[in-house]
């Protein structure tokens, strides 16, 4: 699914006779599941995941996820978890979101990318141009390849499980799938 695709983009073995490789193929992944199959999660599961990863030796926390700000209380919980990890020397990176928000919105990126101690990642296509769905604006820190939904076959190809709801049972399974968005840009 989503997390497996992201992990493969980071650390998939090279010279594997399949033609895909991770960008840091010798990296070690510390998998922390905070979303379900439908890509839903709660502030509490994300906060717990950040703290757990920081306590278990993570050097980098990739958060290919995000949501709009919900309340002052949830912002505080998330900010405290982010600061907790940051104070322990962890680099936190998060996808900026795929809502086409720009400098007219504040913040112009999803949270947790909206926090000061998190690097906000936007998406560009194979031509290195801004993908129209990628959030941007002054809150964006950097862009990376994330594919382009408007161009067939211009996603990030990675070996993963297809586990999304809405597919018939026979469509589930292991294979190569293109995915696009700031979640796919963030691992780069």
TrEMBL record:
Signal peptide: none annotated. InterPro entries: Peptidase_S8/S53_dom, Peptidase_S8/S53_dom_sf, Peptidase_S8/S53_subtilisin. Residues 1-188 form the Peptidase S8/S53 domain. PROSITE patterns: SUBTILASE. GO terms for molecular function: serine-type endopeptidase activity. Gene3D superfamilies: Peptidase S8/S53 domain (3.40.50.200). It holds the Pfam family Peptidase_S8. One of its GO terms (biological process) is proteolysis. Belongs to the peptidase S8 family. This is Subtilase.
């Amino acid at each position: 699914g989503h997390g497996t695709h992201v992990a493969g983009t980071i650390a998939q073995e090279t010279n594997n006779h399949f033609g895909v490789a991770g960008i840091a193929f010798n990296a070690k992944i510390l998998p922390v599941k905070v979303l379900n199959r439908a890509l839903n999660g709660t502030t509490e599961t994300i906060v717990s995941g950040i703290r757990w990863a920081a306590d278990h030796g993570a050097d980098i926390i990739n958060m290919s996820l995000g949501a709009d700000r919900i309340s002052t209380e949830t912002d505080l919980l998330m900010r405290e978890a982010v600061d907790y990890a940051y104070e322990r020397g962890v680099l936190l990176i998060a996808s900026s979101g795929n809502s086409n928000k720009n400098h007219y919105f504040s913040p112009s990126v999803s949270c947790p990318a909206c926090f000061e101690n998190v690097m906000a990642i936007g998406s560009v296509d194979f031509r290195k141009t801004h993908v129209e769905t990628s959030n941007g604006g002054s809150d964006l820190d950097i862009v990376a390849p994330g594919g382009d939904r408007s161009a067939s076959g211009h996603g990030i190809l990675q070996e993963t499980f297809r586990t999304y709801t809405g597919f018939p049972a026979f469509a589930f399974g292991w294979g190569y799938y293109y995915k696009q968005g700031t979640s796919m840009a963030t691992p780069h």
